[in-house]
């Protein structure tokens, strides 16, 4: 199969060389189309398997991300390792409406989660995420155990967030990737922590 593929490439290159010598204008058109098709296929493969963009459509992650922020998401991250607590994750909407949600991962599989007066406890220990700025609420929740292959996620704007407290756990198979970077608008560009 590799040999056949190699032969086709050699035939294509010979055809282009012939065009270049006999019909330079056609060669330029063919070369341009080839470049555009290659770039398009390459971009689609990157979007499908490596990196995608996403739009923040709610205020649940304020002040970390604002409504209208656009971010890059690493789709490969969770193919090689499990998610870590504190990461901002992108996942399929629990409402099955073909949207994507972005939240902060708080608890991992087989951990106990409890919220007392807005303070989060994991396995009866106070959750601390140094350098993370979130808006606290005064809710109580749990205790509840995170099932195997599921995650517990909260918005950084706890009082204005529909999150795992409402719709439940995030199944591992619904994870899309790790949010990396806000790239738009320009005045909000930042690496996400």
Task: Lay out the secondary structure.
Layout: H1 2-22, H2 24-49, E1 51-55, E2 70-74, H3 77-80, E3 88-92, E4 100-107, E5 112-116, E6 119-122, E7 125-126, E8 141-145, E9 150-154, H4 164-167, E10 170-171, E11 175-184, E12 190-191
Antiparallel strand pairs: 1-2, 2-11, 3-4, 3-11, 4-9, 5-6, 5-8, 6-7, 9-10, 11-12
Helix pairs in contact: 1-2
Short description:
By secondary structure, the protein is an alpha+beta fold. Helix content is 28%, strand content 30%. The chain folds into 2 domains: 2-49, no CATH class; 53-185, Ribbon (Umud Fragment, subunit A).
Structure notes:
The structure is a single chain. With 193 residues, the protein is of the alpha+beta class. The protein is built from four helices and twelve strands; from the N terminus they run ααββαβββββββαβββ. The chain has helices spanning 2-22, 24-49, 77-80, 164-167; strands spanning 51-55, 70-74, 88-92, 100-107, 112-116, 119-122, 125-126, 141-145, 150-154, 170-171, 175-184, 190-191. Strands 1, 2, 3, 4, 9, 10, 11 and 12 form an eight-stranded antiparallel β-sheet that branches. Strands 7-6-5-8 form a four-stranded antiparallel β-sheet, with no helix packed on it. A hairpin with a 7-residue loop joins β3 (88-92) and β4. α1 (2-22) packs antiparallel against α2. The two termini are 46 Å apart.
């Amino acid at each position: 199969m590799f040999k056949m593929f190699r032969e086709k490439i050699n035939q294509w290159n010979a055809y282009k060389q012939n065009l270049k010598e006999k019909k330079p204008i056609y060669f330029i058109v063919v070369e341009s189309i080839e470049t555009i098709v290659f770039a398009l296929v390459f971009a689609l493969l990157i979007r499908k398997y490596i990196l995608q963009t996403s739009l923040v459509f709610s205020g649940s992650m304020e002040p970390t991300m604002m409504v209208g922020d656009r971010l890059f998401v690493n789709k490969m991250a969770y193919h090689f390792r499990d998610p870590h607590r504190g990461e901002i994750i992108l996942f399929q909407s629990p409402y099955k409406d073909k949207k994507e949600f972005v939240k902060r991962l708080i608890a991992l599989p087989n951990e106990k989660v409890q919220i007392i007066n807005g303070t989060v406890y994991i396995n009866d220990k106070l959750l601390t995420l140094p350098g993370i700025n979130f808006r606290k609420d005064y809710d109580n929740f749990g205790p509840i155990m995170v099932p195997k292959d599921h995650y517990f996620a909260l918005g950084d704007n706890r009082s204005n967030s529909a999150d795992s407290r409402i719709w439940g756990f995030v199944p591992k198979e619904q994870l899309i990737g790790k949010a990396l970077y806000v790239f738009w608008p320009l005045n909000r560009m930042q690496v996400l922590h």
